[in-house]
């Protein structure tokens, strides 16, 4: 995968034409479509939302986050959504801890469609030890991911350094996010440590350490020149 650093904005379907267009205008490279947060989950509506972003030249990340790993709402029969929507997107995100059967079906869909598979792991309470992080990344790589996404709550600077250093040594691109105020630097500095996508807010920040797209675009240009 070509070395890059995409700025992605996570959005639902609320006022989607306005919000997606605004994200594009402010400099977003991609939209993460959080289907678990959509108010209208009719498949035709979901296709319409993603297709609108595609028409603006934005890359698309499909995420239907499970409730047990921070999802906004429960989505029954996720495989049906992945089957219908994967052809429209560039990246598909599925949790590492998803059941073997569901994960295998989604992996097949992604690979057959020549898309990029993001296998993700979240820990909203702490950052695991170096050994545990290495095991998590190793499992993600072993299971055929194109991108390894690991997001953990950072309680101090050491947590941030540990996550980024382990991510930097992976054989595949990563998305390494140290969540929380202490981890804010990871959302920008991750590019230096093999992280290829950063996620930010459109206007209002909803979580400690999150940056707005305006802040992220300015920082990327200032630090990396693009």
In short:
The protein is of the alpha/beta class and 226 residues long.
Structural class: alpha/beta
Catalogue the unreliable spans: none
What is the C-level CATH assignment? Alpha Beta
Largest sheet: 8 strands, parallel
Helix content: 25-40%
Measured by DSSP, the beta-strand proportion falls in 15-25%
CATH architecture group name: Alpha-Beta Barrel
**Based on the structure, what is the oligomeric state of the protein chains?**
single chain
| Cα Rg | 16 Å
Series of H and E elements: EHEHEHEHEHEHEHEH
Mean pLDDT: 94
What sort of overall outline do the alpha carbons produce when their principal axes are compared?
Answer: globular
> How many separate helices?
8
Distance between the termini: 18 Å
The side-by-side strand order for the widest beta sheet comes to 7-6-5-4-3-2-1-8
Task: Describe the protein in words.
It is a single chain. The chain has 226 residues and is α/β, with parallel strands linked by helices. The protein has one domain: Alpha-Beta Barrel (TIM Barrel), CATH 3.20.20. It has eight helices and eight strands; from the N terminus they run βαβαβαβαβαβαβαβα. The chain has helices at 16-26, 43-55, 78-85, 100-112, 130-142, 157-168, 186-189, 213-224, and strands spanning 6-11, 30-34, 59-63, 91-95, 116-123, 147-153, 174-179, 197-200. It has an eight-stranded parallel sheet. Helix 5 packs parallel to helix 6 (157-168). It starts with 5 loop residues before the first strand and ends with a helix.
Describe the secondary structure blueprint for this structure:
Blueprint: E1 6-11, H1 16-26, E2 30-34, H2 43-55, E3 59-63, H3 78-85, E4 91-95, H4 100-112, E5 116-123, H5 130-142, E6 147-153, H6 157-168, E7 174-179, H7 186-189, E8 197-200, H8 213-224
Parallel strand pairs: 1-2, 1-8, 2-3, 3-4, 4-5, 5-6, 6-7
Helix pairs in contact: 5-6
């Amino acid at each position: 995968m070509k070395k890059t650093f995409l700025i992605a904005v996570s959005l639902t379907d609320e006022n989607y034409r306005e919000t997606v267009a605004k994200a594009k205008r402010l400099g977003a490279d991609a939209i993460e479509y959080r289907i678990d947060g959509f108010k209208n989950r009719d498949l035709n509506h979901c296709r319409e939302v993603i297709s609108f972003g595609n028409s603006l030249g934005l890359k698309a990340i499909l995420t239907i986050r499970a409730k047990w790993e921070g999802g906004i709402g429960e989505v029954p029969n996720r495989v049906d959504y992945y089957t219908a929507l994967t052809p429209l997107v560039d990246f598909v995100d599925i949790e590492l801890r998803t059941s073997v059967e569901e994960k295998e079906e989604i992996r097949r869909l992604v690979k057959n469609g020549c898309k990029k598979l993001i296998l993700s792991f979240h820990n909203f309470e702490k950052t695991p030890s170096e050994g545990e992080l290495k095991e998590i990344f190793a499992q993600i790589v072993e299971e055929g991911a194109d991108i390894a996404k690991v997001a953990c709550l950072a309680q101090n600077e050491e947590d941030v350094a540990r996550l980024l250093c382990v991510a930097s040594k992976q054989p595949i691109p990563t998305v390494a996010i140290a969540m929380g105020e202490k981890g804010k630097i990871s959302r920008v500095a991750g590019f230096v440590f093999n992280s290829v996508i950063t996620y930010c807010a459109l206007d209002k920040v909803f979580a400690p350490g999150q940056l707005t797209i305006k802040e992220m675009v300015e920082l990327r240009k200032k630090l990396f020149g693009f």
